[in-house]
Amino acid sequence: MSKVSIKKEHYNWPITILLIIGILSFIVLPLYMALMIAIKDPTDMNHILALPKVLRLHNFTDAWKMTEYPRKFFNTAFITIVNLFFTLITNSFVAFAITRNRKKSKFFRFMYYYFISAMFIPFSVIMLPLVVQANTFHLDNIIGITFLYVVFGLPMNTFLYCGAIKSIPEALDEAAKIDGAKPLQIFSYVIFPILKPTTATVAILSFMWTWNDFTMPLVLLSDSKQQTLQLAQYVFKSQFSVNYNLAFASYLLVLLPVLIVYIFCQKWIMNGVVAGAIK
Amino acid sequence: MKRIKKRKQAVDPIYYVIVSLMAVLFFAFHTLSFIKGIFYSFTNWKGYGNWSFVGLRNYIHIFADIDTIGAYLFTFRFAIITTILVNVISLLLACALNAKIKFKNTLKAFYFLPYMLGILIVGFIFNYIFANLVPAFGKAFGIQALSTNILGTNYAIWGIIIVTVWSSCAFNTLIYTAGLQSIDTDVYEAADLDGASGWKRFKYITFPLLAPSFTINMVLSAKGYLMVYDQIMAMTDGGPGTSTTSIAVLIYKKGFGGGQFAYQSANAVVLFVIVVAISLLQLRILEKREERLG
């Protein structure tokens, strides 16, 4: 079919309908089921997908209390936000320093390859020795794990930022330099503002990583007061298995913050993730 | 001339200070862990107490240990099947989402939603689906194969594959859609004139032009699935028996709880070598393919 004959209002309805059926059966159905279980009474489970006979919101308050939701939420939010703050300011400057001085100094060239090659080391490879080391340095708490996230994100974020900084003409730095600006000033007033799209990408990827991470909290955070939301779901697994309604209420409480963020920033998130992967 | 060149070479000390500081921290907590892991792999350390060097004993042991070989076989099988399934489904979805459809952005947003949800909880939700919803469905319609919990059978690997496909298609689809959007519509018009349409058009035009997205997805998928961990911890805990124990799960379980700290460190080193080798091999092959097509 040639493009001319297609009018603008002419949609491909068969594909649209297939896609909608796909969404309903594969994406909405599991989440709908989770919601139904979460608002039902344990005695009302004969028809899993049916609406509840009596709406039971008590599951949510019970799960809230049982898993100490506020504390776990605070821990997770603390890790996520503090990591985000330090990641964005330190990793971007490191990338700036490396990109701008790579041609002038062997040191920075070496640093570039050093950080990039570390991307090939998966977490499970360093997991065992890391735990021993973290215990020696008393990093088995939320502050320690936040510190580790900032450090471990460096390879990926440097890579992303370096790609973006390379495309910013050096003449901009030179102009600011002539005006007497110091490197930190050049960076914060000239370069960092231009890097906004990359900063968005790094921010989203860091947020998703720390909020949904399960492995690192599992091996590092043994004290129940230090647990994150994800880890708490795992720790309560055996207690939950006797009461699915409570379990699903708890899962939804963990998914909710992410869903809210997604509803408001989905376009921004999708663009950011694409930009991060294509570099 | 010389003086100008010299001035240009000067690097402000602040750059050295900050980069060195981060490099030292990175070395101390990331690289040093890695080096220590290699070191432990040549010892018989249990994670505490005395130790001595044992040479290559841990490495030799890997090739004679049924548990470890089983974990490698499971992980490879899982990674290969999942990589293929995820990329086929994502490619189909991306093509469909790129067609002239109504509610395009809303539909895209729904298909990307699973990316946002941590796979641990997704695993818990599917646990329930496999344990209760699917068997109820199987019994109601008299389908014997569906009437038991798949996670308790020899087919448990498929339960984990389904969950992984569910949660990773989002990312791969997004990358393919972005790739499709970057294809100039002129190319299609030219193809129309030459009479290429449908499958032919996809095979000779769309797919070759998607080469960069394909490379990204294949490399990231393979690397990610070789590390499979969260969903197994959420769903089968490596069982039934040890049939769904991946290498990452084995390292965690036996390294911390099984008194095999040094042996699992050797296992981790082997895993590292395999992941790097596969990633480099893929990049090589796929980039050559890109060049050939480009």
Top keywords for this entry?
heterodimer, A: mainly alpha, MetI-like fold, 2 domains, B: about 290 residues, mainly alpha
Plain-language structure description:
The complex is a heterodimer of chains A (279) and B (294). With 279 residues, chain A is an all-alpha fold. Chain A has 2 domains: 46 residues, no CATH class; 165 residues, MetI-like fold, CATH 1.10.3720.10. Chain A contains 14 helices and no strands. In chain A, α4 packs across α7 and α8 packs across α9. The longest helix of chain A is centred in the last third of the chain and has 35 residues. Chain A starts with 12 loop residues before the first helix and ends with a helix. With 294 residues, chain B is mainly α. Chain B has one domain: MetI-like (MetI-like fold, Orthogonal Bundle). Chain B contains 13 helices and no strands. The longest helix of chain B has 33 residues. The two termini of chain B are 43 Å apart. Chains A and B meet through α1, α3, α4, α5 and α6 of A and α2, α4, α5, α6 and α7 of B.
**Major sheet size, sense and barrel closure of chain B:** none
Oligomer: heterodimer
CATH architecture identity of chain B: Orthogonal Bundle
User: What is the CATH topology classification name of chain B?
Assistant: MetI-like fold
Protein name (chain B): Sugar ABC transporter permease
Keywords (chain B): Cell membrane, Membrane, Transmembrane, Transmembrane helix, Transport
GO cellular component, one term (chain B): plasma membrane
InterPro entries (chain B): ABC_transporter_permease, MetI-like, MetI-like_sf
How would you concisely characterize the structure shown here?
The complex is a heterodimer of chains A (279) and B (294). Chain A has helices at 13-38, 58-66, 69-101, 106-117, 123-136, 142-152, 154-166, 170-178, 183-194, 196-212, 215-220, 229-235, 237-240, 244-278.
